[in-house]
Amino acid sequence: MPNSIASETAKNGSKKEKGEERSKLRNAFARRATLEELRILVAVAECRSFKLVADTFHLSPPAVSKKVARIEELLGAPIVRRRKQGVIGLTDWGEMLIGRAREVLEKFDAMAALVGAPSRHTRLHVGLQADMTGPLFLEGVAELNQALPTTQLSVTASLSEQLIGGLGNREFDVALLTVLETASASTMKAMPACDWTELAVEPLCWVANRRLSLADLDSVPLALHPDGCVFRNAARLALSAINKSHWVAFNGDVHSVRGAVQRGIGIGVMRRADCGDEGVILSAEDGFPPLQNVHLLRAVRRDVQDRDAADRVAQVLEAAWRRSNPPLAESQV
């Protein structure tokens, strides 16, 4: 008889705990815990790492920790056991609640699949070469916002070296960037976590103001982009190879460098297609060595959350780039 009473007491205790568990989860939803927070909570339980979950959801580790803490506050009970380095496990309440959270997410995803809707927004981080910000190209970015309404795009225009570093640090999911011809193969080989596509090979040229007298120059004044820009690297490598004296007379972004060249402040390096009629193109006859070609590369990280969306973004951006950069005429090559 005593054993029977103990067994019944244990059953009642178990039912009470499950009832409290359901009540806490209902209270969390009533106080507006979001689906993203639940997904993060489940991911933390599985990975036992704020850092890994932060990388997956494109957040910082402190932001992930705060989201978990918010759910704990809503539930009125601790879920994870923490230490300075991160998560060491789940509390007893956490073990029970994680199962319920998974059920909620599975039911929501199943319902979303029935109506043909995606279960959540996808956030993609896109890195673009700093000079890819012309009107025609930006129209392509605008097209993406309309074509992928459930994809949240975060676009950053930066320099080649920063884009390459960002891909390596998982700051970007998709990137369009240029590298020097001698660095193209090594760049792609150094990042096997990305799928690379070479889109174009473009010639560079020296450009100067028509009124600039080259004969009077003991040292070449350059109008260059900041450190990390492929055009700057091409210029300095070419001049150093022939020991030609030079100095940086102007340092600025794409548009200000163009203005500095047009006003004779310095000699610049541009894509052959961007030179137009504003200046004169310099050659070996003027004492300027040939410049390396640049290779336009497209990169998509293989571990991206939504590969279909990432591929769509990459394709639209490539098409936008081609619209804004028509092929050179034979006389220009």
Automatic annotation (TrEMBL):
SUPFAM superfamilies xrefs: Periplasmic binding protein-like II, Winged helix' DNA-binding domain
Keyword Aminoacyl-tRNA synthetase: no
One Pfam family cited in the UniProt record for this chain: HTH_1
Keywords from the named record: DNA-binding, Transcription, Transcription regulation
Keyword Transcription set for record: yes
Residue stretches of biased makeup (Polar residues): 1-10
PROSITE patterns: HTH_LYSR
Biased composition (Basic and acidic residues): 14-23
Residue span of region Disordered: 1-23
Domain (HTH lysR-type): residue spans on this chain: 34-90
GO molecular function: DNA binding; DNA-binding transcription factor activity
Family affiliation: Belongs to the LysR transcriptional regulatory family.
PANTHER family: HTH-TYPE TRANSCRIPTIONAL REGULATOR LRHA-RELATED, TRANSCRIPTIONAL REGULATOR
Name this polypeptide is given: LysR family transcriptional regulator
